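hiii, so i know i said id send this last week but things got crazy w the move. better late than never?? heres the sequnce for the chain we talked about at the cafe, plus the structure i predicted for it. fair warning i was half asleep when i ran it
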Amino acid sequence: MTADLTAGTSPQAGTGLQASALAKAATLIEALPWLDRFHGKIVVIKYGGHAMTDDALRLAFAQDVVFLRYAGLYPVVVHGGGPQISSHLNKLGIESVFNGGLRVTTAQTMEVVRMVLTGQVNRDVVGLINRHGPFAVGMSGEDAHLFTARRVQGKSATGEPVDLGHVGEVEQVNPRAIKVLIDDGRIPVVSSVARSDYSTDVLNVNADTAAAALAVALGAEKLIMLTDVAGLYSHWPGGDQAVADGRPPQVISELSVTDLATMLPALSEGMIPKMTACLTAVTGGVPQAHVLDGRLPHAVLLEIFTDSGIGTMVVPDGEARTP
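okay and structure toks below
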């Protein structure tokens, strides 16, 4: 006698299961042109914000990165760790001081930055990804002279130069070690510290700008920046402009490098490094740069493999989003 697999299942339940299966199939079909376009391409992802501190989002991010690898893309992760650094400094009784969005980094603070980014955060990200297989390999920006940086100064409220200590801006990228890992099927995970261009000092570099520099050096197809907002707004929600003209806040889904360069000086302090990184990447030859809401689970997959995408995409002048 053959077992009746439908016994106890109502027609409505069967219809619901079929609808669910069809929806999954439709999602896979929608992803097909994007799988074709990005197969074999490098995608650099700057990992940070809430996506790095919420346990469920951390797990979802690791799944996204491994999915990209299985789908035939080559993900490279660059991360910061500002909240983790501030937390550790607080435990040590060391005050966190910022100037223009950059952390003032004394020699003592730099020891903590180096320890937290490379010894703690990097290992955590590598461990999450490697739950799904032997893919992730952790690196510091110092390793194999991946990043070489020069010291930068801040500015006071009156425009006077301010010594930021061990804070640098990436000047040179040597991506050979990253390329070796990619060729071996690995997922590089890079912490945002760098060697100094004039001494043995190690410098704290902004993860946004480091990710953009690496994307350009690798000839990446995409740069993805995970942040804590839905994207770049035409006017910030609740800002004076919104109050004045009554317009609802709206995320800009796509803009050209010329439009972004025009908008950049008026952006909020927190968005300037991210959008500057997007501008740097696209003008440096990366076809697309994105700012995504890292608070949304699987934001990376939604952007890459759906027709509508999410967040804000920056493209060269005259180009539009097409498979």
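btw The first helix runs from residue 11 to 38. thought thatd interest u
miss u guys!!
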